[in-house]
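Shipment paperwork, digital attachment
Item: protein structure file
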Amino acid sequence: MDILSTGKRSLVPDGVAFIEGDVGDTVLVREILRDHGCRSVMHFAGSIVNPESFEIPLAYYANNTSASRNLIEACIGEGVRHFVFSSSASVYGDPDALPISETAPTRPLSPDGRSKLMTEWMLTDAAAVSPMTFAMLRYFNVAGADPEGRSGQVGPPTHLIKIAIETALGHRDGMLIFGDDYDTADGTCIRDYIHVSDLADAHVLALGHLMNGAESLSLNCSYGHGYSVRQVIAVVERVAEVSLNTAIAPRRQGDVAALVADNANILSTLPWTPNHDDLEFMIQTALDWERR
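Attachment content:
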């Protein structure tokens, strides 16, 4: 189910049931759950751009928090037993220490992060008074594309790797580096990247974990190490065999110097293997997708 505000219908595989609609439409969601006999739900719908969330905060609370509230109500009303929620590392805010564990304080700095954390709270409270269990997967920076070329990132570019690749392919004249005075080795922000295929595997395994009777849980989804903006740009240049035109811009509101996860929990809880922990591979698959 998707409202297709940023997604594309053509990327849904043949033979997969698809309903165009809003996850916040409780009546429609309940009808779908009932008609298809759904007992598990994976919730990916939401807005995700930190800087944009400062400009249109109420839109983020509507799309992320209010719609999620309605979806959770519909799921509980129709007897859904397991719920996997795509949360975000932005719930942590500026961490006290690195790497960040799931027990670290949650102090989001942006409306995006706060809207995701509010959904985590709602899900926790609602599940406490129902039979439903949940897995909250806190994404760090998702990158790459399906290695077989079946799917990849679409819509306006909002993430570093897609912007850098569009620049490498000549789809834009240049790109900005937002801040070069952070307390990092080269002055630019450090982020923990995870390939989208490994992230997809984590969702399937988390759902299986719940279906096997596990208690509700929160998990960081990451590789446990990070790369700076300049390091990412250097790998894009090497893979694409071009030099990128970059310029320094002021820091963006809500950005922190480094976000790197402690991923020990997901490694010990799920039979999950990071198969694509390679920045060059992530960038190559994203480049291949963009060329298509």
